[in-house]
Amino acid sequence: MKAVVIASLKFHAPAAMLRRALTVATVGAGLLFAGHAAAQQVFAAASMKNALDDLSAAYTRETGKKPVLVYGASSTLARQIEKGAPADVFISADQDWMDYAQKHDLIDTGTRRNLLGNELVLIAPATTTGDVDLKTGAELDAKLGGGRLAMGDPAHVPAGLYGKAALEKLGVWSKVQGRVAAADNVRNALLLVARGEAPYGIVYKTDANAEKRVRIAGTFPADSHAPIIYPVAVTKQANRAEADPFFKFLQSPAALATFQRYGFSRP
């Protein structure tokens, strides 16, 4: 059984009302708070979906055990764990939300590891052409025009936080923030651009690689935001007999090769 969490989407713009909502969709009713299932339950950042789906299938072939995968914004997942959601392993898209889990005594700190790295990119629909110079933000501001800039909610979604930091460093955040389409996770931001509902979006390189309907229009300078690191840890409430083998599997050479094939890097 596999669970996918997709949280709501909202547009932030002056004089604009909420135009679209994507409701939470969960495969397997009552999964999050129904207590531990037989398999290990893995709460992972939405940007990991394609790679982690492949790794889960490989793990099932090797062991006969099928992990339960729950995807969403790292902020949402950390808060769900705090409220008692039965997660065994937590993978965050940034250090801050793993720090939050650690501060609230939700993880076994001895298991915390930096698992992966990523890059922050600007995407556009695949039907368009032309790159955007991101050495300064002037070109992005001009090309965006009256269109929306899709990105994770900069108030709490890691991809949005990285994106806001980069735009601030480039000196254009104040100019574009009123045109931001803020999504509750990075994959929802990706969908806005893929569907042609936004001319540009800010996502991770791995998200862009996973969606044929978008192209990378520019890569944000590495020094425009904090390093993108995905930490992983076993939770305090974990069924260690189930969690530990999968936790070790995620750090195996074969798993790391799969992650790299999807565009992740070593931290």
UniProtKB/TrEMBL annotation:
CDD domains: PBP2_EcModA. Transmembrane segments: none annotated. The complex is composed of two ATP-binding proteins (ModC), two transmembrane proteins (ModB) and a solute-binding protein (ModA). The gene is modA. InterPro entries: ModA, ModA/WtpA. GO terms for cellular component: outer membrane-bounded periplasmic space. This is Molybdate-binding periplasmic ABC transporter. Molybdate binds at S47, S74, A159, V186, Y204. PANTHER family: MOLYBDATE-BINDING PERIPLASMIC PROTEIN (PTHR30632), MOLYBDATE-BINDING PROTEIN MODA (PTHR30632:SF17). Belongs to the bacterial solute-binding protein ModA family. One of its GO terms (biological process) is molybdate ion transport. One of its GO terms (molecular function) is molybdate ion binding. Keywords: Metal-binding, Molybdenum, Signal. Residues 1-39 form the signal peptide.
